[in-house]
Amino acid sequence: MDSENTLVTRAPIAPPAPWGGAPQPVFGLPCGMVLRPWREADAPVRAAAYEDPDVRHWNQPEPMTLDEAVARIARWNRQWTEEEAAIWAVADEADRAVGLIGLAEFDPRDAAAEFLYWLLPRGRGRGVMAQAVTAVSRWAFEEAGLHRLRICHSVANPASCAVAVKAGFPLEGTMRGALLHEDGWHDEHLHARLATDEPKP
Q: Which of 12, 77, 104, 106 has the maximal Cβ count within 10 Å?
């Protein structure tokens, strides 16, 4: 076990969120959708996320007015610039935002981050989220220098479990009573992928 002194002085394994000095990239997905930065015009989509029962149950978004959604999008863009998080809109072929994917809980010392994602009904059924996780993972490992990415979800959410497995994130274990939902405490599955894992086919 590391000593207390070692924990304090150990240098980061990876550069501290090196994405902040460059424009946020745009990723095309095989399904035809695109990952791009959020825009102020997308505010109604963020506000609508609270109204979808699946997004509300599994992701617990805050209810927001349009003005609050505009402020949240500005915050996401600042987090990119300030090297704190990387959040993309999932946009359809008409460039309408239909969901969100990103990396948060960034730990520069351990070069690790956690996925967050949600998708509105009009974006579902095409395998987009597994493709989005794969694209962001590739960027995180190859461009941002991260070592470990994780996905956590309720054991009662098989759709999210399927996304993780399809994107090459094996199940590592179950965390008991780890997340409080509207209907009580849920056990969570923990999936993770390392930069040193075999590339996903």
A: 106
Q: Has residue 6 been placed in a domain?
A: no
- For 57, the token pair is 């149950």
Does residue 107 lie within any of the structural domains?
A: yes
Q: What is the pTM of this model?
A: 0.86
Q: What residues make up the domain containing 146?
A: 23-194
Digit-coded pLDDT (tens) for 125-170 = 889 999 999 999 999 999 998 999 999 998 888 898 999 999 999 9
